[in-house]
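TODO from last week: model Signal recognition particle GTPase.
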Amino acid sequence: MDVRLVKEIAGRLEERCVGEVPPPGLSRKDHIVKILYDELAKLLGGESEFSFKPGRTNKVLMLGIQGSGKSTITAKLAKLLTRQGYKTGVVGADTYRPGALVQLRTMCERSNVEVYGEEGESDAPAVVRRGLRHFGDSCDVILVDTAGRHKEEGELLDEMKRIGKAAEPDLALLVIDGTIGNRCYAQAEAFHKTVPVGGIVVTKLDSSAKGGGAIAASAATGSSVMYIGTGERIDDIEQFSSTRFVGRLLG
Ligand code: GDP
């Protein structure tokens, strides 16, 4: 976890451990663990307050660096939302990674989710505009998958800004690889400056990673974790629970 956050948590822990008397029946040790638990949950921002609005198209922009699991979670989320009764469409606007569109189509095919994309087109914001026009108001939710890598980071962030303008999303979901740990804070902060992040998805939590980066991403963007990815299969997605997550983090 980012060292600034560790210091902040340690400071709060010290302050409360010294200042608070354990409630009757709770040992000092258990009280300290409880305080740590509370402080971590607080940094995670609790349960997300975002909900999809009925009767209109909700546009969701998927952000994150290449390899974070963005396309996979887009397909997983499309299936989950479809199962929850939302008519869902996907726009494949990763015009940078070869094969990204085919991968997205293959994953979404089995759940009968339509993917709009333009093979060979490099203007991602234009693909987003045409994709949104293509679906019109036929969907409850449209997920927009974006590129995660460019020749340089500045170029990627600039493209995200232009895509953000083209999509005018109701929600920008930042996808974070649960295994990357303390690099999360800077990454989340950089994305948040280009398109305001409204929610976080942490992937690859089936590995030995505990996902401490999620706390950093929450702190950097002021938004809550909404979903987690727990494997490579299409159904390996869960709605986030901060209680379970902090429990796992503390072991
Ligand atoms: P993108 O570049 O951000 O779109 O990333 P991809 O969706 O292509 O995923 C990158 C790699 O991570 C692929 O090999 C995925 O199968 C894998 N992956 C994605 N999500 C998970 C997950 O929750 N658990 C595991 N173990 N692997 C995942």
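Done. The chain has a mean pLDDT of 91.
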